[in-house]
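Handout for the seminar on molecular recognition.
Each group receives one record of this type.
Step one: identify the two inputs.
Step two: read the structure output and locate the region that could contact zinc ion.
Step three: write two sentences on what you found, then compare them with the reference statements printed after the record.
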Amino acid sequence: MQHVLGLKCTICGKTYRTGEIAYVCPDHGDDGIVDVQYDYDVIAANISRPHLAKNSDPTIWRYKPLIAVDPATPVPPMRVGWTPLYEAPRLAERLHLKHVWVKDDGMNPTASFKDRASAVAVVKAHEEGAEIITTASTGNAAAALAGLSASVGLPAVIFVPKAAPPAKIAQHLIYGARVMLVDGTYDDAFELTLKVAREFGWYNRNTAYNPYMSEGKKTAAFEVCEQLTLALSPAPYTGAGKWIAPDRIFVPVGDGCIIGGIHKGLKDLIALGWIDHMPKIMGIQAAGSSALVDAWERGLQGWEMTPQPAETIADSISAGLPRDRNKALAAVRETGGAYLRVSDQEILDAIPVIARNTGVFSEPAAAASYAGLVKAVAQGMVDSEEHVVVLLTGSGLKDIKSAMKTVPEPPIVAPDLEAVREIIE
Ligand SMILES: *Cc1c(COP(=O)(O)O)cnc(C)c1O
Ligand SMILES: [Zn+2]
């Protein structure tokens, strides 16, 4: 992989060649999360904006030269990425803003953002010659891995907390993954998977521990800028000018891999000279699982953080010790963004508001992103002229039980006209 220079430790800055380490910087145990370093001259020789303008591949693989995979490795057939970016004028109006956009990552094949990372995981497992792949997950990462693995016939073993929403567990089982429900939290499942993968020699997809997951997740940042440019440029779009970056991006945060990935993608675009400013990245956590908000407020570094209790209805962002905390804090600090907490009630309230004003049905973790925008506006953080993007990271069909808490029971009606008239009047 000519375009990959190495893997740089996010704690000590030591850089390794790929292949020299499997996952993390050995000087810091399992916390030594590394970041993939690129040669942007090599990348620029293989991909350009005009080239992308003519590329009809509607998946993350349109950006393959920007991802740390061997160009020759086959990619899974499922259609991951290039999810819709919708303008949301009615949401904007509610908030007295002018330009609000939502990105519907529930449109991915297993209905969450995690498909972006799991697609890359399957490619890396193939490159490593792995026979089995494993992951810990709150539910969506495992559903994504189960689906992407099934698409290429790679056996997957997954560890999820036993309290994961049934729809997600159904996905794991139907895709034929070997499922183990852990009698504990996501953090317990994570630690267990580290031991199990080492013991049995399985390829480990665990978020943050595996450095390539950020590289899959960053594709959403490329799409946001390319799609915003397509939407705002006169047709025909040729890719001649720079891409348009939004001013602010709202990201729901659990482990911090998505937010770190978004930051990475934007840094790639800056390095290539494809965008001219860095958007402010806003990290939104559930109040009951807000270790990164605490650390940001207290000025802590990722390696100074300790495990906190994590309890929220938004299961996908429940993480006591966010695994990608170094990258997650840098994303907000280096872009002049902020971390905000939203309550479970604010998250639930956001679900029907998003759905009724955009047509997008979100699971609680995804809705947290919009609840964060509401809070940021209330706190006067957002200028009305800004272009704001809200990442909606997962489909509402993933967690019907939570969604149904936000709406009344419908009436049961006898099958005749008069009964309907009575209800309507
Ligand atoms: C995983 C997930 C998140 C949070 O991503 P992290 O990388 O853990 O911060 C947000 N929303 C949904 C729907 C998810 O599945
Ligand atoms: Zn290190």
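Reference statements: The chain has a mean pLDDT of 97. The domain at 85-111+214-406 is CATH 3.40.50.1100 (Rossmann fold).
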